[in-house]
Amino acid sequence: MDLAKAIAVKPTKRQLAWQATEFYGFIHFGMNTMTENEWGDGTEDPALFQPTDLDCRQWVRALKAGGMKGAILTCKHHDGFCLWPSKVTNHTVAASPWRQGKGDVVAEMAAACQESGLKFGIYLSPWDRNHPSYGSGGPYDDFYLAQLTELLTNYGKIFEVWLDGATGSGSKRQQYDWERYFATVRSLQPNAVIAVCGPDVRWIGNEGGATRQEEWSVVPASLQSAERTVSLSQNEDNGFRQTISSSEADLGSRQALANHDGPLVWYPAEVDVSIRPGWFYHPAEDQQVRPAENLWQLYRHAVGGNACLLLNIPPDKSGKIAEVDCQSLERLGSYLAKFNQNNLVNTAKIEGIGTIHYHFENGYLRIQETSLEDENPPAQNRRLSFEWEQPVTLDTITIKERIEAGQRIEKLTILQEVAGTLVPITTCGTIGYQRILDFPAVTTQKIVLEITESRGAISLADIVIADHRHLHL
Description:
By secondary structure, the protein is of the alpha/beta class. The chain has helices spanning 3-8, 13-21, 31-35, 56-65, 105-116, 138-154, 178-188, 254-257, 292-302, 323-338, and strands at residues 23-27, 70-76, 119-124, 160-163, 193-196, 202-203, 218-220, 264-266, 269-274, 307-312, 349-354, 356-361, 364-369, 382-401, 409-418, 421-428, 435-454, 459-466.
């Protein structure tokens, strides 16, 4: 691996802003909600779309109660039915009896997000099983871009455009003009990230919530086109992939990149998973909603493992999120609001050892080595110690790299002092944007954070040390 090349890879401003969003909701709602299907075939009568009590403000309240900072709406799913009155097709809410044909779900959701301070994103399925031009090549691309332009120009700021690679089969297969799609997003919403089939945000590799033990954002550039490959795209209603193949388990370690001589890119991961077994609402699944305890584990491994978490919350046929989902989200949000609230760093005597230096900036503990440009820092004596006047109990340490400088830490150890000897508490590999390390509670007066392996000199954005034994979901 070319160390200098790996160190040089850094996120863009739009990727930094996206990563800081951390946790946001996916709203799967549309014709499938009315028909209780996961995938429609495009022949559905628009008259079927008639939610009796649609309330986007209620959706937003539920997401905010869960601790989310944004929402992505399925403006059009594979069946082709549009939740806004698109001017280039009749298969829209304008042809439905809802709001006497004057409604616009996208507008209502965008307004609710803006009012509440949530970021707003869109999902526009490239696969359209209703429109007759699908499979025609350029004419369909023109149609798709017309719809994309409507969404990117009429609904305010967009933080993420979520594009999957689902496609038709046989004579209805369409080769998407991805570069034109990307150029349109860049032109109309330059601050929006393009996810999954796009160049900014990488699909984690499954839709079951599984994460990697070590998640690298610096990966081979070839991964940016992996989900655009037709052979990897969904083309049948056969459910969703739920597992990560062994070949995808390690994307960015030195071992994984040992024989890689191509370009590297910053391509961070997004974990998409549903609070229910399905992605659209089904009454039969009301007893299968993920409890708050499970949602916390998803959050801990995703947001606490150098990824963002996109949690699907599907509204019901009436147009509201079911109470059981709301309750689970509220419990999670209450827990997240209290997590890391009492930071033991604030009462510790801190000492940088060797090349490690620290300072506080706006309440955050910043750590950096003497020279960030050093590609070969010393192999030993790279430590930061925390010492308290009286013994403290801790069971969680949250660490953030300053990813503006790249992703550099490869191995880190936390030790505690026992009778004058340093004893390991826990060890981890890479950090990235954030790593939540939890372990059986220890009571001690001194701990030491030691950097044992890295790609050049390191820079940390913050460290939080806490005791969560009495914090319950």
